[in-house]
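Please go through the sequence and fold tokens given here and tell me how the chain folds. Record follows.
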Amino acid sequence: MAKILGLPSVKHTVRPIAAYGIKATDVLYQDTQGTTVLTLRLASADQFAMWKSVTGIKIRPFPALGGDAFQYEDIRTVCAKSGGSAVCVTPDILNKAKPASDAQLAELVKAAF
């Protein structure tokens, strides 16, 4: 993750999620100063359909990952599924100093599978 983000190192915190019909694991990645740089959500493939059906948020296809991959426009979250797994990567949109590019988000999703 650090290499993809161009950081010297990252630390992470794992948080299980079980609420509102969601069963997933969030992995929060922070830089050496403790600033969150991205959140990775890992779940089973059946959660992917729920993520894609969220109303009130604009989504668009994310061709860099092909298939059904999509991106929430406003928060730049990228979600994809592969086999029995689904992944969403959400960059910290408040981190203006070093924002993650779409290419980096695609690589982060691929690395999570």
